[in-house]
Amino acid sequence: MVCAIGLAADRAAMYHLFTHAFFKALLFLGSGAVIYGTHHEQDIWKMGGLKDRLPSTFLTFLVGTLALTGCPGFAGFFSKDAIITAAGHGHPLIFALALATAFLTAFYMFRLMVVVFWGHARSEHARDGHQPPSVMTVPLIILAVPSLFAGWPIFARMFLTLPHEENINLGVMSLSVVAFVAGAGLAWRFYEGRDSDPIHVPLFANKFYIDQIYQTLIAWTQDLAASLTATFDRWILDGAIVRGLSSIAWVTGFVLRFLQLGNLQAYAFLFGAGSVALIYFFLFSK
């Protein structure tokens, strides 16, 4: 969607936003159903063999995966290809990156499917896995239907304006299908029957170091600004201005209260002292 906006393909962006709403919600809820069904286990390498223990969750999750990865006939296939087609019009680098992204999406999603649902159970939680209740599975089934049909032009055209038909390129679609098949096939080849991740790439293991980069940026921007703001608030606003002015008012009141002694002799003395001071001022000020 961000790529489509950058390409000024607003119709393709809205098209993918529309289809994306169904299958991405399905996948998030499906992940929760898997976690619930495996007694709150969240490590995929402690799962495995869940397609027989969580059948409806497996089928709906498979529909969401096929839609997200752009399998022909599913919702994401039509909207994703509209974006790749837009990139193919004069943007070769973005077009190549879009195809690479389609390949990686198919690879990591089918990696997830193979590790979680196929193979054998790798933990007690997976062996005792159970189908979630209907309050969780019914929404998955409801979302699975539009995840299959929402991208079909005859259906999507009822809700939004689709990209121009003349922009559809069968060659681009063919390359997209090749990226899907290659990603899904390699994921099955690498991960079928595995008990641990056979691919050890530090860049991937550290999530492209996005978290580290983000933390560094935050430390030098947001945290620094927060520290400077806190210092200014503590010593200038609260210290010098608020407490300073209140301290001046307190000291002034403390001093002036000695002029209100309630003693007649003291008032007479102060009056006399003031009169002497005025006389002295008028006589000797010049």
Description:
It is a single chain. The chain has 286 residues and is mostly helical. The protein has 2 domains: 2-199, no CATH class; 222-284. Helices cover 71% and strands 0% of the residues. It contains 13 helices and no strands. It has helices at 2-6, 10-37, 55-68, 75-87, 92-117, 124-127, 134-149, 153-156, 170-191, 202-205, 210-220, 222-256, 264-284. Helix 2 (10-37) packs antiparallel against helix 3 (55-68), helix 2 packs antiparallel against helix 7 (134-149) and helix 5 packs parallel to helix 9. The longest helix has 35 residues, at 222-256. The radius of gyration is 35 Å and the shape is elongated. The mean pLDDT is 89.
Topology of this protein?
Layout (H helix, E strand, L loop, with lengths): L1 H5 L3 H28 L17 H14 L6 H13 L4 H26 L6 H4 L6 H16 L3 H4 L13 H22 L10 H4 L4 H11 L1 H35 L7 H21 L2
Question: Could you provide a short overview of the structure?
Answer:
The protein has 286 residues and is mainly α.
Features:
elongated; 13 helices; mainly alpha; 2 domains; single chain; 286 residues
Mean pLDDT over the residues:
89
Largest sheet: none
**Low-confidence residue ranges:** none
So how many helices?
Answer: 13
Rounded to an integer, what's the Rg over CA atoms? 35 Å
Q: Number of domains in the coordinates?
A: 2
| Helix coverage percent | over 70%
SS-derived structural category: mainly alpha
Strand content: under 5%
Shape category: elongated
Run of helices and strands: HHHHHHHHHHHHH
From the N-terminal CA to the C-terminal CA, the straight-line distance is 86 Å
Record field, number of beta strands: 0
